[in-house]
Design brief:
This protein has 133 residues and is of the alpha+beta class. It is built from three helices and five strands. 32% of the residues lie in helices and 46% in strands.
Length: 133
């Protein structure tokens, strides 16, 4: 029940993701899981717990390295540096969850599925972060 405009937007985002190098990178990991839930105790004035789901979690066979892929829409008009800054806190949180679970190295890739990378037309803009050893 999407409008024609919304359907076109969705199809374009899916096509950009499907042909992307970051998708190929994710699929090369030994274990790839979508919508992986997490639950973490936090010290916050807004509550004691935070829960959610990681869009795509790729891990090695030993549970030492992980790649978090988070799909983003709505970053139109932001410079690549602004996109990176905008999602840094979320990347730190995801990494903290996984490092606390025993992972030694966590990489996060925030994939702007509606935007081309200005340096690589046809590829989505990706903000990357690395944590751990």
């Amino acid at each position: 029940h999407l409008s024609a405009r919304a359907e076109a937007r969705l199809r374009a985002a899916l096509a950009r993701w499907e042909r992307s190098s970051v998708r190929a990178e994710a699929l090369a990991w030994p274990l790839v899981r979508a919508e992986v839930p997490f639950f973490r105790r936090v010290d916050s004035p807004h509550g004691d717990y935070l829960e959610g789901a990681i869009d795509l979690l790729c891990t090695d066979g030993e549970g030492r390295r992980a790649l978090v892929v988070d799909y983003k829409t709505g970053d139109a008009g932001l410079a690549p540096e602004e996109v990176r800054e905008r999602h840094a806190m979320q990347a730190e949180f995801y990494a903290g969850v996984l490092l606390a679970e025993g992972f030694e190295r966590v990489e996060c890739a925030f994939v702007c599925v509606e935007r081309d990378d200005p340096q690589a037309p046809g590829e989505p803009l990706v903000a990357r972060y690395a944590f751990g050893a």
